[in-house]
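New to this. Explain the following:
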Amino acid sequence: MNKIIPILIIFLLVMSSFAFAVWEEIPKVITIQGKLTDATDDPVTDGNYDFEFDFTPNADGSSPPYIYTKEDFSVYNGIFSILVPIDTSKINFDQALYVQVKVKGPLDESYQTLKPTAQITSSGYAFTASAANDFNVRGTATVGGKTTLKSDLQVDGKTGLGINNPSEKLDVIGNIYVGGNGYVTISGDAIRSSAPFGFFGDDENPATDDWTAQIIHTGGILAVKSGEAYADYKTAIPNGGIYSRGNILTAGSISDPDSEVTINDDLKINTIDLSTTATNTLVNDGNVVKQRAPDSRVWGTTLTDGAGSSGYIAYWSDANS
């Protein structure tokens, strides 16, 4: 056996760098076919032959990371067709690969290396493998490179970013960035948190800076520009509420049907309308303005204890009602 016809490599599948289990498990097997001839181009003698297949990224067949042997394979009229299982833990099909075939006949004492070394090529339909129309994952999908989605992504289970066992539909350990004119829409319940969280500016670092932005907590506190630790404003308003070290602007009303509203600094209001159905109290640094009669009204810009300028229907103080 001194001469052979070049080996014809036929692939029944294309391996890739993806490590995944799809609904129908891909058989990690390729078919290698060829014909063995002697020096006169006649088929070799029928019988059992031993084969060795060396897979390597080197065109000269050197340093093969994966070697498969098939012993006592029946060859008839010089033709062989062998299924070769592939160990993808030893060789990746995301690079140019070559296979070097070695054969040992019934009368040979050692393997003979067939020439030339054959390059592994893909079948035509395998070119669509990089753009699969449907991708159903049954097990774990590991992607080593960039993934681009040109349509919708539907996830029936839970998605974790930076976490192996997500507890919610979307569970993120790390930062989420929404740029441009993007926004986040919440159509269900309000934002919930098991611990304080904040909204920080570009020059603020939540890991090192004070929480000087808005902080929301499930304990019922909204702190605005607090610059203080959560424990500080939790002590200030233990029953929950709004805690602010800056200005609060509202186009609507601020009310508490169950208790008084206490302000520890200046209060500037364009109009005060005291209810005619109940006694109301406005507290400011210990000074109390009380409603004396159901139909009393106060408006204007100047009201002095005991005397008032024109334009007032009624005015009073603790000393003069």
